[in-house]
Amino acid sequence: MLAGAVAVLVATGLLSWAVGTGWSRLATVVHGVAGLSLLVLAPLKIRGSVQHGFRRRRQGRWLSALLGVMIVTTIVLGVLHASGLWYGVGEWSALWTHVLVAVLSLPLVLWHVTSRPARPRRTDLDRRTLLGGAAVVGAAGVAYATMEAVLRVASLPGADRRFTGSHEVGSFDPARMPTVQWFDDSVPETPADEWELVVAGEPISLDRLRSLARPVEADLDCTGGWWSRQAWDGVALAELLPDLDARSIDVRSATGYSRLLPAGDAPHLYLAVGYGGEPLRRGHGAPVRLVAAGRRGPWWVKWVTAVEPSDRPWWLQFPFPLT
Fold first, then answer.
1. Fewer CB atoms inside 10 A, N or C side of the chain?
2. 197 near 203, Cβ under 8 Å?
């Protein structure tokens, strides 16, 4: 059951990162219940195999203990993020720490499972096992519902988090919106008056974009655990690509970062040059960035240099770029 819970945690964690619509709520709830189910299982695991392993001085017992500590740490960090009791240090959020510890624990989970091979047995799915599993999930569900109720009664910050689990920061106040970038990206130093932008093979000036830009409200929901609503000054890609006849749109950054988006989303994708009537800040993607309404942060390409129609299907790419 431990391996099953971990598999659910990984799948729902990635899904909640990838989906920016209401479906993310279901993934977030299942993720939370699966995490709390590990805490329910922990006492049983400690009284059973952990104590037995230390009494017999089994090889790898300290690795097992380390795995237990890392799993508990991961869950505690998740609870701290969800409740809003600790946001992290600087730009390094509690959620990213939660993800980092979880990723580092995966090799130990694989070692734990493969070092104790067990053939499936018919009794693995007997009535007693199923009832035990249901009891664990039920207890975790009650714990999750209780935590949500406590957040609301105590008016803790987590009570108002978005359906993705993110906390609101700096809405309609760009100066307060965090500045983050993807992994090894660094902020380009090219001045705005030297910026080169190509749309469908044709150069387009920033002055041209500014003259076409109109305010559009959209929520930037970062995978770092925060979201912010701004009135972006942007131009819809459908306006810049009126005769679009392609499967997808390839949006590329000066850093080499890129994303393929469905061509059908062109009316809801914008090249933004500002927010709230002021120019973008460099850390927020100046001089021009993509606004991908309804999608999570990794789709909001910053420092855009090219927008090109593509015949590649948008789903034929890594869900989360490695660079």
1. C
2. yes
Where do the domains of the chain lie, and which CATH numbers do they carry? 2-167 (no CATH), 169-310 (3.90.420.10)
Least confident span in 92-96, 119-123, 153-157, 236-240: 119-123
Amino acid at the residue 206: L
Coil, helix or strand for 224? coil
Residue showing tokens 């493969």: 114
First and final CA of the chain: distance in angstroms? 35
Token pair 């994303």 in the structure block, residue = 259
d(CA 292, CA 22): 16
What are the tokens at 139?
Answer: 């207890």
CA separation for the pair 2, 50 (Å, rounded)? 14
Please report which helix (H) or strand (E) contains residue 96, including its range: helix 94-114
Q: Which residue has the tokens 């329910």?
A: 40
Residue 260 structure tokens: 């393929």
- Between CA 311 and CA 317, with CA 316 as vertex, the angle to 5 degrees is 120
